Amino acid sequence: MSTTEKKDPEAPADPLADLQRQFQDAMQHYNLGGLFSRPGADPAPADKPAPPPADPLRCIREFNHKPREIRDYLDRFVIQQAEAKKVLAVAICDHYNHARQCIATPTLREREYAKQNVVLLGPTGVGKTYLIRCISRLIGVPFVKSDATKVSETGYVGHDVEDLVRDLVKAAEGDVELAQYGIIYIDEIDKIAAAGNAGARDVSGRGVQVNLLKLMEDTDVSLQSQTDLLGQMEAIMQLQRSGKPPKRTINTRHILFIVSGAFDALGELVKKRLQAGAIGFAAAGRAARSDSEWLKKAGTADFIQAGFEPEFIGRLPVRVVCNGLTAADLEQIMLSAEDSILTQYRRDFAGYGIDFSLTREAIAAIASRADEERTGARGLMTVMERIFRNFKFELPSTAVKSLEASTDTIADPGGALAALLRANLHAQAGLLKKEFAAFAERFRNEHGLELVFEESAINALADLSLQKDRTVRAICEEKFRDFQHGLKLIANNTGQTRFVITDAMLAAPDRELSQWIVASFKAAEGKPASAGPPGPA
């Protein structure tokens, strides 16, 4: 079905009420009422008072953050972007102070108030999404992120703009009161500017902008989409359980909308406009500006020329540009930002009992390579994964418990890994012995039979494990697949449950096992056997 296909115009005005009526008729006809009650559940004692409900709006009622406090909090997680932090801190404080006042004095809701919806401009990977996520975490309000390119105009098949508000309710775990003070963040908003083609209905460009207009100010959104049958069924079941219909709408008056994008085309428009009058020596003598410097000069007219509706961009009064990150910034992110990629890698290796660290020079080398990726802080993950992927794969199965990466590691990861494994061969032999013991223990627990590996057999299997680049467990399971069946025959014939694994057994396990079985049958018949299964060691 095309994304521009219109939803059914004959859909009932109130689909939930219509579905509820059909659902109740079905329950009466088929006697399904018991399906939606918990079996064995006892009603609450009449003399036991219900616990007082939690206050979902406590975080808003007690909001008392100052802009500097929010800025300082963001400094812990996001490096640079001082101006963006300042602008966001002021907008957040203004917005939630007004929300707190409206809760305390409901008459304030009737007064006109211009909401501080925000537009963030800047390249990818500079921390735009992370800034907003950290703010929502600090305040305690639900947060929803979506890409503008994945949203369609309301009334058309797809994830429409009103679904963003419904997703906010889900993020609030169904608490509509809290959700109406949440934050909706829409990335890649620049991709829906002038997206339509002549003669075609634009349901993901101008149409989305128009539908976002009323959401960004003050409107009621139905909590049940006409196409969300599961949500409608859940609402009916809630009505059956509680006897009270769920809240049907959510108001967007206090939902803060923040949009962002790289706005490359907008930067080019501003650059052409400002350079239009600069010719000859004036143009040649002007210092080159970064993309963010051009974006800082953008006005409302530039946004409109870039393809945004005047009413849409007018509802985003707070505008701030995020600067691109340098290699020095990326280095600082690794050194000082909380929950940085370096912290994540330390946790990853610590999960295997390995202490992971980087020298200061190695951090600088990684930051330099990440800067060449031109993807901001995301480049750090790209470079780190490229360098340490094989370390993550190999080291958890070895005896290595410490890894300090230097510039040599960054320059030649493969060589550094090979040298580290060679340096730990002695410790690796001890680890392999433990793995043999673990395999023997599993075998005994599963089959009631004990395997004892001779030292020479352990060394031979360890060499085979290294040659084939497979774990000891995989090698043993391959060598001794279905071995228990033959050993159980021997145990039935002779009562023996302890078997010694020798070099000969490793060289030809099937042949040796067959000889053991034949010898056990002869022993059971009282006949002399030329060779029998090894007895207790």
Spatial extent as radius of gyration: 34 Å
User: What shape does the CA trace take?
Assistant: elongated
* N-C termini distance: 73 Å
Proportion of beta-strand residues: 5-15%
List low-pLDDT spans. 1-7, 30-46, 195-201, 280-288
Number of helices: 26
Q: Record the strand order, biggest sheet.
A: 2-5-8-1-9
Summed over residues and divided by their number, the pLDDT gives a mean of 81
Largest sheet: 5 strands, parallel
Q: Which class of secondary structure composition applies to the elements?
A: alpha/beta
Helix content: 40-55%
Total strand segments: 13
Describe it.
The chain is α/β, with parallel strands linked by helices and 537 residues long. The chain is built from 26 helices and 13 strands. The protein has helices at 15-30, 58-61, 67-75, 82-104, 128-139, 161-171, 176-179, 206-216, 229-242, 264-275, 280-285, 291-295, 300-305, 310-314, 327-336, 341-350, 360-373, 378-394, 407-411, 413-423, 425-447, 455-468, 472-479, 483-494, 503-507, 509-525; strands at residues 118-121, 143-147, 151-152, 159-160, 183-187, 220-222, 249-251, 256-261, 318-321, 355-358, 402-405, 450-453, 498-501. The strands form five sheets. It has a five-stranded parallel beta sheet with strand order 2-5-8-1-9, sandwiched between helices. Strands 3-4 form a two-stranded parallel sheet. α3 (67-75) crosses α4, α17 crosses α18 (378-394) and α24 (483-494) runs parallel beside α26. The longest helix has 23 residues, at 82-104.
